[in-house]
């Protein structure tokens, strides 16, 4: 978060403006931006994602950016924003925190620092009144891939007796979205893990090789020639192990060797036509060439991961992020941004800091993400 001096300067600067999502009351969730203008012209921005129905402050951060960056970010922000008085912004946010606190739900971990942006504005000076919950009661709508343990914990806190949760992509989409996606959606119950999943093919590797592959996974984005060489050796030894081809495709891509990346991808598709990562990479390649029909063709018009992995209900985080990030890109590129946002929300709920989530976030809204999440300009 940076030095105390920077924070002190930010929270004592004159207020620039305060904005709130126009659809907060309707959606139950939205953003509040509280900004101050510093002596050098930079903008100190406190951003709060609030859930007035149940969870209070779900996310928050404090950043210092240039005025030009701030303006660009606001202009490219997908939410429609309206002005709110600083005292009312504070009252609204603190009220959501107090409502959630009644049920033992704590605000986002950065909130304690970010709320300093309020300064001395008195929330009691705000003449507006705000309602929390749905009809006065907490309403928690779990995401289709929310961890079941978390769902049960929150339901227990807010006094729900029925913990049998219907879950799935359908739970996040509007009737209009579902009509576009098709009628074949059902509610599912799944788990997401970062642990290696049981894999008969991977069992061919020695213990040392499996450990080595775990290390290689963390180096794929380096584009290291040593990583590429080692993957080539492993493929020669284990030509029927699709994960090795997938890793090599990624490594070639990050080494800017597009020709080899495409060549390896085509080989992977030929050898393993049903391998999820082959399908995802194939779709990205064809979309780069302008072919938008490839996604519904490859995935048979079914845009829920559960339709493509039917033999288990535990998915690896890379399967989850890779598939849903593809859906973000696809629906954005065909002009269905509302659906793209739903898939991005799934990613942000389950893996907010995952590189694939961040890439999808940047793709959907590059100006907003680049300006506000760029840590090099953070406080």
What does this structure look like?
- The protein has 379 residues and is of the alpha+beta class.
- The chain folds into two domains: 4-125, no CATH class; 172-377, Alpha Horseshoe (Serine Threonine Protein Phosphatase 5, Tetratricopeptide repeat), CATH 1.25.40.
- 47% of the residues lie in helices and 12% in strands.
- The chain contains 17 helices and seven strands.
- It has helices at 4-11, 24-27, 67-76, 86-101, 111-114, 148-157, 175-181, 207-217, 225-237, 242-254, 258-271, 276-288, 294-298, 317-333, 337-350, 355-364, 366-373, and strands at 15-21, 29-37, 43-51, 56-65, 81-83, 191-193, 314-316.
- The strands form two sheets. Strands 4-3-2-1-5 form a five-stranded antiparallel β-sheet. A two-stranded parallel ribbon has the order 6-7.
- Helix 10 runs antiparallel to helix 11 (258-271), helix 14 (317-333) packs parallel to helix 16 and helix 15 runs antiparallel to helix 16.
- The longest helix is centred in the last third of the chain and has 17 residues, at 317-333.
- The protein is elongated.
């Amino acid at each position: 978060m940076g030095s105390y001096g920077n924070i002190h300067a930010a929270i004592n600067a004159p207020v620039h403006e305060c904005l709130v999502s126009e659809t907060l009351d309707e959606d139950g969730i939205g953003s509040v931006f509280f900004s101050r203008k510093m002596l050098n012209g930079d903008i100190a921005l406190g951003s709060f994602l609030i859930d007035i129905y149940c969870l209070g402050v779900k996310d928050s951060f404090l950043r210092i950016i240039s005025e030009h960056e701030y303006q660009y970010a606001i202009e490219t922000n997908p939410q429609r924003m309206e002005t709110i008085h600083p005292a009312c912004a504070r009252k609204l946010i603190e009220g959501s925190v107090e409502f959630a606190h009644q049920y033992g739900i704590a605000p986002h971990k950065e909130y304690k620092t970010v709320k300093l942006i309020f300064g001395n504005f008195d929330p009691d000076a705000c003449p507006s009144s705000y309602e929390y919950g749905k009809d006065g009661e907490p309403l928690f709508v779990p995401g289709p891939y929310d961890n079941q343990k978390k769902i049960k914990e929150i339901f227990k806190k807010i006094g729900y007796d029925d913990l049998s949760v219907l879950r799935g992509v359908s739970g996040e989409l509007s009737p209009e979205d579902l009509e576009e996606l098709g009628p074949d959606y059902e509610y599912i119950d799944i788990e997401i893990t970062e642990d290696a999943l049981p894999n008969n093919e991977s069992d061919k590797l020695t213990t040392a090789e499996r450990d080595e592959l775990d290390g290689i996974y963390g180096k794929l984005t380096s584009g290291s020639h040593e990583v590429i060489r080692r993957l080539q050796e492993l493929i020669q030894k284990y030509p029927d192990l699709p994960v090795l081809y997938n890793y090599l495709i990624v490594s070639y891509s990050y080494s800017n060797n597009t020709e080899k990346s495409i060549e390896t991808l085509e080989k992977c598709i030929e050898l393993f036509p049903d391998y999820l990562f082959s399908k995802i990479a194939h779709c990205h390649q064809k979309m780069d060439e302008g072919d938008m029909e490839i996604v519904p063709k490859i995935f048979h018009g079914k845009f829920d991961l559960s339709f493509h992995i039917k033999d288990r209900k535990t998915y690896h985080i890379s399967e989850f992020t890779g598939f849903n990030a593809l859906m973000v890109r696809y629906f954005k590129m065909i002009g269905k941004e509302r659906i793209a946002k739903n898939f991005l929300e799934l990613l942000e709920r389950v893996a907010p800091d995952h590189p694939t989530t961040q890439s999808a976030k940047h793709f959907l809204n590059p100006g907003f993400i680049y300006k506000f999440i760029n840590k090099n300009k953070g406080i």
